[in-house]
Structures are given as C-alpha cells and as structure tokens.
Specification:
With 535 residues, the chain is mainly alpha-helical. Among the domains are: 50 residues, no CATH class; 222 residues, Orthogonal Bundle (RNA Polymerase Primary Sigma Factor); 74 residues, Winged helix-like DNA-binding domain superfamily/Winged helix DNA-binding domain (Arc Repressor Mutant, subunit A, Orthogonal Bundle). Helix content is 69%, strand content 0%.
Length: 535
C-alpha cells in the first residue's frame, strides 16, 4: 500500500479499527521511505500525497473561480476591436467554405446553449403540458428532449450570429455584447489572446525606449511618466511641452527626431488596435489578471486530483507504457476535465474526471503501447475479445476457441483470428538468448535471406573466374558484347545501346553475339560450366 491510496478492505467491525491503524502506519512508513529514496516514482508519489483532497464545496468554489476568470477573459476579448475584425474574416471564410466551423465556434457549447435557450423559451408550455413530456408509447421517443442539431443547422445559426455582429460592427459596444454571447473555439480564443499580448509587448517596448530617450535628453523619469501616461495619443506631444522651455526644450533639441519616431510608432499601434493606448493598457492588465487567476485555480484543482491519476495509472500497468508515462497522459486528461467541468450538474469532479483520465490513458496505450501500432478501434475490439475469452473460460472451464469467441460476440471468425494474430507482442532481435554471458542475441540465430551465404559467395567468385577465362577465348569486341548483353558487367543492355556505342546497327551486334555464343558452346567450355549448373 502506498501513500496515495489508503483504502480499508471490508472487515468485521471488531477488526476495523486495527486494520485502519495498520494501514495508516504502513502509509506513513512508505512516505518515510520515499523521503530517503531516489526512485522517481516514489518521489512523485510522495509529492502527490502531500496535497489534500477537495471537498464538494471546495470543488464548486474552484469551478466558480475558473468560470469567473474565463468570463473575464471573454469580456476582454469581446471588448477588443480586432476581435470583431477577425470574426468578420471568419464569416467570409464560412461563406466561402474555406474555414472549418469548429475552428470558429466551440460546437458543443454552442449546441448546448441553443438547447438551453429553446428549453427556456418553452418552459411554460412544458409545465402546462407535463403529461405530454412523458415517453410516447407509439414511437418510444422521449418528448420534451430537444433533438440533436444537425451540422447544417448549426452552420446556419453560426453564420446568422456572425451576420448580426457584422450589422453592428460600427458600434463597438453593441458588437462586444454580441461577441460575448458567442462560445468561441479554444484555438480562436488563443489566437486573439496572443494578438493582444503581442500588441501589449510592442507598446511596453516603445514605452521603455521612449523613457530611455527622454531621460537621456535631461528629463527626469517622474516628470516624464506624469506627462506621458494617459496622453500617448496626444498630437505634437513633445512640441507642446517644449514650447514651455526648460528641460523639455532641451529634449526637443537633442532627441526630438527620436521621440517623434517613437510616437509615430505608437500612432501606428493605435490604428491597429482601434482603441486609445490607455484603454488598451487597461484591457491588457485585466487579461493578465484573469489569466493569472485561471492558472492558479487550475493548478489548485490539478494538484488536489493528482492522486486520482496515479490510482488510475496503476490499473493500466503492464500494457506497454511505464507508470510515469501513464501518469503524464492521465494528467493531460485531467486538465481537459478541469476545462470542461460543469459544477451545476451536481456530480463530483472526480467522477467526471475519471472518464477523461481513462480515455487519455487508453488512447496513449493504443498509440504508444506497442512497437507496431494498432488502430484504436482494433484495440477496443481486441479488449472485447479478451474479456469474452476470460468469461467463456470461467464459465466452461476450458480454453475457448476462436469460433466460440466469434459466436459470443457475433463477429466473423476471420476477424477474431486476425485481431489475435495482431495482438502478438513484437520480439526484439537484440533479445538475449539463454542464460550464458556469451552475448548471444536472437538475431544471431535467424537467417538473413537478403545476404549471400559463404558457400554461395565462394561459388559465385569461382564462376566469375571461369567465365572470365572462357571469355578470354573471344575477341575483345565479342567479350564486351557478351558481358553487356547478359549483364555480366552489372546491367543488361539492349542491342540498340551496344550498337550505338560501336556505331553499327543492332543487326550487326546480334550477328556478333550469335557467333560468340556459338564459340562458347564448344564442349570444353560446356564441361567447365556444367559443374556450376549441377551444383
């Protein structure tokens, strides 16, 4: 028993307290042992055990904090003018069918919002006609449950929503309200957030360069900040202050061109974002605060549930991935569960997260657990076959055949046999053979059909020598033609190719070849080559 999982087995009431004390002591011993261990698994389990589990109330509180942070981020995105511009580009892409719907809108949230809106609109009718919301005995359908929206209907609804934004894009406030109602996809949200952060970095960079230039020109930092912040878009900023004389006049004389160039860059950024620099600074600050809050909440949520991932990872051991790899994949599923958890549905987070963690682990096992990858659907079918085989073995007491499994699963026998054949583990050619320390490997005992054996290599060498001796009886021209025609020089060549080199016709080459073969067919040559043919 480890520090992660202290689970008392069902025992008699008289032994329950003793069992609990024993398990607690064992867990403490494991933690103490882990403190002096260098095993990464033990160290990880020790760290995970230090984070307490969340109560139901704490889960709801964290989920609400995440929801509030996400809503604040969405407010910032909706308030940025270039979000409207980007959505108009997406609208054009949807009209031209060059943009995928899922890259613009979170389809699950959009469909759920539509169903909830429809249910709310018909709430009075549902109350008045409660009897008609029961199961229809004729067709077995449940009345009152909104049908699944089709992809075409969803595309039309999204385009209509974007067209409403297009109609009011001249009014930033009205457009922001409509954008806020759209559940943007994670990719599009990330793109808009990245654009805001990049622009903010550009502004901060200009601020820093401008401060250095101004202070190098003789103006104190405090004086500069008081005159600069909130007045970034002011026309003739430096000229207005230089007219008063003093340090500003000296700055205009020394660094006027540099200051004007930096303010021109600020003007360009202002035109890009469509907002005054001061308002954009506030939006960027709100975005940063909301993202920090979201990150802290996610981290608290994740740390409290790491032991759940470790417990589920144990159940997937010995299936092709080491423990820490399973934990890593499970943590990815845990983060997905944190993103999608809806506290209003009433179930505990661990119940919901278990499905995402298991799904992430099983997908990783299907993709990475085998040397030769099997498709996910084949892995699922193989799991059913193995489970069925165990059940049949326990029921009958004998090993089931492929036909028995196929009959129980209503699956073709050929498919069962093929999946079981695919399930065989790959064996490494570098696997050691025997218990001796002679370094023998499995690959040393397997024949390489692509490599010529020692006997064949010697025979081939002797044949080449004899052929060379036989060809010496021919004229150089005849020997060259025979070598090239029969590939003795490496590749076989046509009569036309050889005739082109000798500047004669292909018929002449054929005649020379026939004459040479006739000479090679003599008895003394045949006896020499007969040995190789019989061998």
């Amino acid at each position: 028993m480890t520090a992660l999982e202290i689970t008392a087995r069902p025992v008699a009431d008289a032994d329950r307290a003793t069992t609990a004390r024993t398990e607690t002591a064992g867990a403490r011993g494991n933690i103490a042992f882990a403190e002096h261990s260098t095993d990464p698994v033990r160290l990880y389990l020790r760290d995970v055990a230090q984070h307490p589990l969340l109560t139901r109330e704490q889960e709801v509180m964290l989920a609400q904090r995440m929801e509030a942070a996400r809503a604040a981020i969405d407010d910032v995105i909706a308030a940025s003018p270039f979000a409207c511009t980007r959505l108009m580009q997406c609208l054009q892409g949807l009209r031209e069918e060059s943009v995928a719907l899922g890259s613009v809108i979170d389809l699950d949230r959009f469909a759920r919002m539509g169903a909830e809106a429809e249910a709310a609109a018909h709430a009075d009718d549902v109350v008045e006609e409660i009897d008609e919301t029961l199961v229809d005995a004729d067709d077995g359908d449940v009345a009152g449950v909104p049908p699944a929206i089709s992809a075409a209907e969803m595309a039309i609804a999204v385009i209509e929503a974007l067209e409403r934004i297009e109609a009011v894009q001249a009014d930033p406030a009205a457009a922001a309200v409509l954008i806020r109602e759209l559940p943007l996809s994670l990719d599009l949200r990330a793109e808009l957030i990245a654009a805001m952060r990049d622009l903010n970095r550009r502004i901060v960079g200009v601020d820093g360069r401008l401060a250095r230039v101004v202070m190098a020109g003789g103006v104190k930092r405090e004086v500069f900040l008081e005159a600069y912040l909130g007045k970034e878009g002011e026309a003739n900023w430096l000229a207005t202050r230089a007219a008063k004389g003093g340090a500003w006049a000296k700055l205009a004389e020394r660094k006027g061109e540099e200051v004007d160039a930096l303010f021109a860059e600020l003007t360009e950024i202002t035109q890009t974002i469509g907002l005054p620099i001061g308002e954009f600074r506030e939006l960027a600050a709100r975005l940063q605060r909301s993202q920090n809050e979201q990150t802290r909440t996610k981290e608290a949520f994740a740390k409290a549930n790491l032991r759940l991932v470790a417990a589920l990872a144990r159940k997937h051991l010995n299936r092709g991935l080491p423990f820490l790899d399973l934990v890593q994949e499970g943590n990815i599923g845990l983060m997905t569960a944190i993103e999608k958890f809806d506290w209003r549905r009433g179930y505990k987070f661990s119940t919901y997260a278990t499905w995402w963690i298991r799904q992430s682990m099983t997908r990783a096992l299907a993709d990475q657990g085998r040397t030769i990858r099997m498709p996910a659907h084949a892995c699922e079918a193989l799991t059913k076959i193995r489970r069925c085989a165990v059940q049949l073995r326990l029921r009958r007491g004998i090993e089931p055949t492929n036909e028995d499994i196929a009959s129980a699963l209503a699956m073709p026998v050929e498919k069962v046999a093929e999946l079981l054949r695919m399930a065989a583990d790959a064996v490494s050619l570098d696997a050691p053979v025997g218990d001796d320390d002679d370094g023998a490997r499995l690959g040393d005992f397997l024949e390489d059909s692509a490599t010529t054996g020692a006997f064949d290599a010697i025979a081939a060498g002797s044949l080449r020598e004899k052929l060379s001796e036989i060809l010496d009886d021919l004229t150089p021209r005849e020997a060259d033609i025979i070598r090239r025609r029969f590939g003795l020089a490496g590749t076989e060549e046509t009569l036309e190719d050889i005739g082109r080199d000798y500047n004669v016709t292909r018929e002449r080459i054929r005649q020379v070849e026939a004459k040479a073969l006739q000479r090679l067919g003599r008895a003394k040559h045949a006896r020499v080559l007969k040995t190789f043919l019989e061998g």
